């Protein structure tokens, strides 16, 4: 039995991709990429463009309302970006505010973490803290990538669980106008309904960061946009990285 047949047989018997991947990678290392595309990927997508998926009905209206309420209760702060030399800094390319929950902070947050894991087929322990980001009129996040580069600052965050393999952006409140998530190199803008999500891979099937994952949180023209973001790591996420990333 070759490795392709081995993978197909394992999946048909109910083995998870992670279980199969761990065995293959332990035996043949990076050659495993030839036989399995092991990245976060939305299972039931309404639309796909490249490695970007649009998923409807991730959260209910009530769940969106509760998340927004919890976020306001904890309080928002100006979002930052990774500083090349280490730490983080405020940057005019990113003008939104945000906050983060602890991992499994309560049963409600844990349930959402489990759901996003199931939707994308990625282990929940590899997820960072769920974050809620708020964009008012004129606020945006200009084109950027969520994956970490090789600067000293990025390497520090990368040590907490490896590369960011996937991103999930759930729309809790849609702007009346503007506020989409655009991928300029793919020529597409995603505008989920309330409770829907944009899911995308940040790396190709060999684990190499992709420029096509470059995206923007487009300016809000009317109304207010509130999203929840999850960044999914290569391996188990070790500790808090407050708000560096996309959305």
Helical segment count: 5
How far do the termini sit from each other? 43 Å
Going by CATH, the homologous superfamily of the largest domain would be: q2cbj1_9rhob like domain
% residues in beta strands: 25-35%
Give a quick rundown of the structure.
This protein has 247 residues and is α+β, with helices and mostly antiparallel strands.
Task: Please tell me about this protein's structure.
With 247 residues, this protein is an alpha+beta fold. It folds into two domains: 1-37, no CATH class; 39-233, Sandwich (Jelly Rolls), CATH 2.60.120. It is built from five helices and 16 strands. Residues 241-246 have low confidence and may be disordered.
Element layout with pairings:
Layout: H1 3-12, H2 17-28, E1 47-49, E2 52-55, H3 61-74, E3 77-78, E4 81-82, E5 88-89, E6 97-100, H4 107-120, E7 131-135, E8 141-144, H5 152-158, E9 164-173, E10 177-178, E11 181-183, E12 188-190, E13 197-201, E14 215-217, E15 220-222, E16 225-233
Antiparallel strand pairs: 1-2, 2-13, 3-6, 4-5, 6-7, 7-16, 8-14, 9-13, 9-16, 10-15, 11-12, 11-14
Characteristic terms for this protein:
eight-stranded antiparallel beta sheet; alpha+beta; single chain; 26% strand; 2 domains; Jelly Rolls; 16 strands; 247 residues; four-stranded antiparallel beta sheet
